[in-house]
Design goal:
Elements (H helix, E strand, L loop, with lengths): L10 H10 L1 H12 L3 E3 L9 E4 L2 H9 L5 E2 L1 H4 L3 H4 L9 H11 L5 H5 L2 H12 L7 E3 H17 L6 H17 L2 H8 L12 H25 L8 H7 L10 H32 L1 H12 L7 H5 L2 H13 L9 E3 L3 E3 L2 E3 L4 E4 L1 H4 L15 H5 L20 H18 E5 L7 E4 L2 E4 L5 E7 L6
Parallel strand pairs: 2-8
Antiparallel strand pairs: 1-2, 3-5, 4-12, 5-8, 6-7, 9-12, 10-11
Bound molecules: protoporphyrin IX containing FE.
The site of protoporphyrin IX containing FE has 26 residues, from helix 14 and helix 20.
Length: 454
Amino acid sequence: MKLPDGPRTPSLLQTIHLIAQPTGFLETCAQRYGDPFTVRVLGLNSPPVVFFSNPQAIQELFTVPSKQFDFSKATHVFQPLMGKQSVILQEGRSHQRQRQMLMPPFHGDRMRAYGQEICDITEQVITQWTPGSTLSTHHYMPEITLQIILRVVFGLDPGPRFQQLKQLLSSLLEDVTTPLYSSLFFFPPLQQDLGAWSPWGHFLRRRQHIDDLIYAEISQRRLQLDSSRTDILTLLMSAHDDNGQQLTDIELRDQLVSLLLLGYETTAAALAWAFYLIHSSPEVLQKLRAELDTLPCAPEPEVITQLPYLTAVCQETLRIYPIGLICVPRMVKEPMQVGGYEFDIGTILVPCIYLAHRRPEVYAEPELFKPERFVEQKFSAYEFLPFGGGSRGCIGTAFSMYEMKLILATVLSHFQLALADRRPAQPVRRGITIVPSSGGVQMVITGEHKRKQG
Ligand code: HEM
């Protein structure tokens, strides 16, 4: 069976290129080989990996019954971090069951109950800012989004457990994005506990410390179950599946850690891009400011999140720099046809978000940051897919869009900012996300906005 064309260089070189310059590698392959293209990235004798960006093929991939794919080929690397019961490691019925229980708190009225808290946390963090100073969005955005996750997902109130978890989780994530640590996850033979000073030993001890804090919180909540609470842990503790079963403590722990690790760096990175892109385009900044100026004093979160230009700015940010470049890779379990090609068992198929968002026939001048395109036109779920789609689509889609809008609006309603460095930021890999290179994230506070009187 003939596979789509692709680079012929040794798989090791392709792997290095993809890791070191992911966006450049994808663009080069798309220019040279078109869509779809095949790469070899997982080592010798590895299966072919086929990337798709055509909306028609992406639709096919999102609608194939999930039992025809094995998703664990790519997700198993997360097991030591997130645990065996994590939603991202489940397949089939178990995956469906967990999604069914995890989705409701991230939608509708339940999600909207967190709006004011998101604005309050943002205000609290930015009260430290003073005009004339320089700040790094790499520092402040994760600070805000991690606090939000700990408060709304865990329902943790500020205190020693909150502080300890915040510190441990952010240093864990800091570590796992370094090349040394991340290679441990990809090469299980390196996972040797040689004491607290060895990399794996250090990881295991830190994970144990995090788990102790999480299990302590779960058991305290079980003892004093307060069903009036609206945090996601409380909702998950009282949720039942179709058979009336509740989540076990291990399942709860694994879901909480997964939501934390997937939920805060991603939104923080999207916000870093949003600040960079907005302040790189005076016209966009001016339009956004004009829209924010129409807000009443102390607006309801709902009023903010319905602003059309603010929404378009967030969508266009995620179009131009989707934080995840690809959806979860899918290994074919039974021969199938996608995009007019036949694929054998074992082939890995990848919907490529980054390339789908840069197709000139869908997005005119795709390299330009033009939020207006989202005001003027609606794009299908196979053309605009920053949160992936199909059976594995992101659980935090609505929540993170909601969060992004509230944080952006809160910051921009208080301060005038400018980029500290005029050089264009480049997308660089940080773990599984794509973030702006360091020059793009330093902002200067050039002024403060007068609060409207009520
Ligand atoms: C801007 C922010 C975010 C982006 C760009 C993003 C993107 C993604 C993408 C691309 C996927 C893979 C989807 C696929 O393969 O089709 C994913 C999966 C997932 N995301 Fe997000 N995400 C974000 C925020 C969040 C938040 C806030 C949470 C929860 C607190 C979250 C939880 C998850 C979970 C649990 C999955 C796995 C779903 C499954 O395997 O069934 N994400 N996300």
